Amino acid sequence: MGAHLFLTPDARILDGWCRAFGDLARAGSPAALPDAAAGGLLWVDVAHADWEGLVRAASARGGRVVVLSAMPGGEQALRALELGARGYCHAFATPELLREVALVVRHGGLWVGPELLARMIRATVPAVAAAAEASAPLPGLDTLSAREREVAEAVAEGLTNKQVAGRLGITERTVKAHLATVFEKTGVRDRLQLALRLSRRQP
Amino acid sequence: MGAHLFLTPDARILDGWCRAFGDLARAGSPAALPDAAAGGLLWVDVAHADWEGLVRAASARGGRVVVLSAMPGGEQALRALELGARGYCHAFATPELLREVALVVRHGGLWVGPELLARMIRATVPAVAAAAEASAPLPGLDTLSAREREVAEAVAEGLTNKQVAGRLGITERTVKAHLATVFEKTGVRDRLQLALRLSRRQP
DNA sequence: GCCGCCATTGGCCGGGTGGACAGGTTGCGA
DNA sequence: TCGCAACCTGTCCACCCGGCCAATGGCGGC
Q: Is the CB of B195 under 7 A from strand C?
């Protein structure tokens, strides 16, 4: 245990990494992936053509993965975390920082840089609150029939009655009938209120 | 450096922590807070009456804080992270796990348990995407005049033209005029579309 | 078989909505 | 001073929307 497997096409970056970890560092090929799962740490440079696939594969095997980028960005970091990475930092980070990241990730932690970490926390707080409130967004929403729900969701997308009728292959009159029962069951007045209430849901 | 300062009213929990960290562990009083900022780690039990204040104060001073709970929960964890804590785990966790958490947090990482970590990532991905899209939610939204924006936001709340007129102290006709220019500037057809587009923004 | 729920459709009507004419004032920069 | 944009208001009209009356057919339960 304790081995570091590095995947990057850039020789200079690899050199920096090796200075940080000494003889524990090994430049690896994708074929050596299973090694990373055995208690070691896999470092993947986004410059690698298939970095996303590598991260996903290694994470699925239970390996700890750190993604490095010469041009770090929020979307890329989130993409990495989504794929299972537990660390994300600058590819040219100092050896000290790299060792910090290694320590954190290998012990089950997350390392992403202060600003992104703050952003994640800020994003999660309202999301959890929204999930709690989404448990009862509309009182009688579960009492809706399948057809009524279809109409309600189409309306919530902003379609007119005529458009909904066309999508469902029924008359506009029928749409209005379904919509009337939806309003009655959920206690909503407008289609606008319905759209606003339905649009606050878990994506 | 390396000292652990524990704040809990429960003697059994304190005993468990001391077993985990040996003579590095010290039961502390809130008055000893500044110590935690000096390279050490502050552990706060949510059983403490003012745990939120303690976490906030210590974090503001730059200290690394771990929050422990005998009954861990998502909302509580998020609350702790929001206040500046960088670790959250069960108060009766094994000494091994506590040492892992200590290692991670002290080296700048985040430790929150796998399920919450996954939830945070899932919550952040759409939030970041929404933020990116919110940069241009409506093409000409910045070209709206102050009055037009007022009308647009009132409409986005679900008010009718008459209600908007009452709120702004103008005629319903004027509301329709402003709304017409809002539609024209933003390229939106309906008030419903406007409400849906405007409701997708940072809360 | 009757009852209730659902899906479907019809007509009618009052009110909301959006567009197309039309004006007016105020303030600000060219 | 002129032009222009923002703000405000008016009338007319076609259309949409939601609520009211009604009807038909299917399907499952008592």
A: no
